[in-house]
Structure formats: C-alpha cells, structure tokens
Amino acid sequence: MSRAGEGDFSSWVQPHVPAMQRFAARLVDRSEADDVVQEALVRAWRRWSTYDGRRGEPTGWLLAIVADRARRHRTRSRAPEPGLPDTDVPAEDTRPDLDLERAILRLTGRQRTAVELYYFVGADVATCAQAMGCAEGTVRATLHQARGRLRELMGDQS
C-alpha cells in the first residue's frame, strides 16, 4: 500500500503501537508515556491521509510523531527531560544498567535519539533515519559516535 486511506486505521497502526510505547517510555517519564502515545495516535489518525508508503515504513513515520508529541508534552508540562529511572537504590549503587542510563542522558540529543530508537525500540537503521529525518549514513555515524561516547562515559578505556 503506497498511501494510507485504504482499510482501517486501527488495524494499520496496531503492529506499531509496541514500538511507539517503548520509544515514548524512553522520552518521557513512564507515568506520562501513555499520554504521549495517545496524543501521537490522535495526530497520526488526523494525518493518516498524508502518509506515503513510498517514503518509508509506517513505523518510522509513527515514531517521528511520538518524538514530536513527547517534545511538546515536555514543553507543555515544563518538566525536565526524563531522568534516571525511579528506584529506591542508594546513590552509591553502581549497577551497570543505572550507569548506562546516566551515560545515555549525557549524550547529545541526536545521539540519544539514535540510541533509543536503535537499541531500545529495536528499529532498523532505515526506520531510525525516517524517524529522525536524516539519511541512513547519518544514523550509522551518529550511532558510532554515541557508542564511542558511551564507552568513554562508562570508563571503558579499551
């Protein structure tokens, strides 16, 4: 299908909702992720007729909408970008996953978005590029730079 407009929106979008939820949970506090996904679904439904399958897969288009809605949600609520996961762990706890979360938060916005999409959402490079509005080579280079920065931040000197 090259254009949306045929069939049922719910059936069309359903396979992509889990990726949208994972991405939203990485962009805003988990307590607000469902709101962001709902806002993105409303926006996607309103703009569904503008989707053109020749420009990429639906997942990339939908993830770009999630990113936009998350950005607007943070601006509206005037809340800071998502912080560390809610835990009752003392600050001196140095579990690797907590260190990784801290390191990811120190990446540039573009690097963090690429890491979130590729590693946490499971999007391929083409979908990341579509969601980020850039070329596939840019995504590959950004991921390469992000991995290097994460190694540096995590203290891996190899």
From TrEMBL:
Protein name: RNA polymerase sigma-70 factor (ECF subfamily)
Region (Disordered), start-end ranges: 72-94
Domain spans labelled RNA polymerase sigma-70 region: 13-78
Keyword Ion transport (UniProt): no
Annotated organism of origin: Nocardioides marmoribigeumensis
Residue ranges constituting the RNA polymerase sigma factor 70 region 4 type domain according to the UniProt record: 99-150
Keyword Transcription tagged: yes
InterPro entries documented for this protein: RNA_pol_sigma-70-like, RNA_pol_sigma-70_dom, RNA_pol_sigma70_r2, RNA_pol_sigma70_r4_t2, RNA_pol_sigma_r2, RNA_pol_sigma_r3/r4-like, WH-like_DNA-bd_sf
Keywords: DNA-binding, Sigma factor, Transcription, Transcription regulation
Family under the similarity heading: Belongs to the sigma-70 factor family. ECF subfamily.
